[in-house]
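ok trying again, last paste got cut off:
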Amino acid sequence: MVKFVTTNPGKIHEAREYLDSPVEQLDFDYPERQAEDLATVAAHGARAAYRHAGEPVIVDDSGLTIDALDGFPGPYSSYVEEKLGIERVWQLAKEESNRSASFRAVVAYCDGGSFEATPEPVDTDRRGDDLGTSERDSATTDQQVAEDEQLPVRLFEGVAPGKIVAPRGDGGFGFDPIFEFDGQTYAEMSTEEKNAISHRGRALAKFADWYAQR
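nice, full thing came through this time. structure:
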């Protein structure tokens, strides 16, 4: 069994479509590390969730990357969507001749065991400096933080390429109305259609293949 750390039941349903092993929801508000890449955020969350649960966990982090904006908003997608809204992001992108973009997801797995971990970006100068108060409570010294970072984590990335368009569709959430894949925005797709080609689904499929061999 694996615990999926999320407050979104839809993610649990999506994960169960790919995994043969049981998947259960774990509602744990882990402190999110501020970083410029999804892998660092997901890996840090997986380690924190494993410390909390003491059993195999997966954590996912995802974001919209716009090529002409140097990958913005990326790991800051939720914050940008909340503060700026999709219409203002569309206004930024519409001025560019290249509107290509991708939704990216990283699924991070940690079980406290020993396996070949995925190399991660490491910023040793900031180690421990960007942890929130609650995280310092569980990793209070540089040595403890360093030991946490020795926990093996396996990362699986999924990418759905597309382009930014004027908002269309009433479904989905977040940036779905301005992200078009193969002629439809995510917001114009049914849940089943979106899950079949989604960035998270692609990452989960890779994880499922690997996990089946564990």
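cool. Helices lie at 9-18, 38-53, 77-83, 86-94, 133-138, 142-148, 191-197, 199-211. Residues 2-211 form a domain with the Maf protein fold (CATH 3.90.950.10).
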